[in-house]
């Protein structure tokens, strides 16, 4: 807390001193200093003079020295966020996280996972897939669970992240249909596909459409896999592609109000090879 008039800054409970909250630090007790429990900083200053009881510890002396440097004003007390000596008027979660976590190198895949105008749940799922955190059957077996290792989509090969995306015949068939709409050469390798998404070139509309379609394919393939695991029904590649097509069109149309040109170009690109 930045002390101005001192009327809202509680002496014991607010973080106005350099060392922090006085009560939490236990620099002294209110019974020893004789300062009331709910006293404000302003209540200790009368006619420009600080009315303080005698200091009985080194911590109290340091506190008094700082207190005598404060000049009360007519402005209201306010809060400011200080990190590494830099003071700002608002709290930044990102700055606090970076401070606690430490500086980290930028990852090349972030632009393919987290990008403007994405579908949030698709981006989050793609992030989990990239980190290989989805409970595929090979991971479940690695945890000691007794499960059938066979892929739920093709029923012929062991299930893993790299198999599902897109070495599996079922998933590759779907990815081929989607990538054709985006004028891409479909790749069976997950690693090569991610590298391709990271290095996408071309105009904004083409790149955005490609990333949306890729993440939608990954999301709906996992959705179908889970549906077969927890339910009895199955969907064909054509049915899943129809769901992706419907979702992509809705997403493109959502841009029409804020960026009609982008929406129009993306819609033309999506239907050009339909």
The computed structural class is mainly alpha
Helicity, as a percent range: 40-55%
Largest pleated sheet:
2 strands, antiparallel
Instruction: Tell me the span between the first and last alpha carbons.
Output: 61 Å
Contiguous uncertain segments of 5+ residues: 27-31
Task: Calculate the mean pLDDT score and round it.
Answer: 90
Number of strands: 4
Shape: elongated
Q: What fraction of residues sit in β-strands?
A: under 5%
In what order do the strands lie side by side in the largest sheet?
A: 1-2
Number of helices: 13
Number of domains: 2
Radius of gyration using CA atoms only: 30 Å
Oligomer: single chain
Instruction: Write down the secondary-structure element order.
Output: HHEEHEEHHHHHHHHHH
Can you tell me about this structure?
The chain is 49% helix and 4% strand. The chain has two domains: 22-101, no CATH class; 110-272, no CATH class. α6 (120-130) crosses α11 (204-230), α9 packs parallel to α12 and α11 (204-230) crosses α13. It is elongated, with a radius of gyration of 30 Å. The chain has helices spanning 22-25, 30-33, 58-67, 93-101, 110-113, 120-130, 137-142, 161-167, 169-181, 190-198, 204-230, 237-253, 260-272; strands at residues 45-46, 49-50, 81-83, 86-88. With 274 residues, the chain is mainly alpha-helical. The strands form two sheets. A two-stranded antiparallel ribbon has the order 1-2. It has a two-stranded antiparallel sheet with strand order 3-4. The N and C termini lie far apart (61 Å). The protein is built from 13 helices and four strands. Pfam families: zf-RVT.
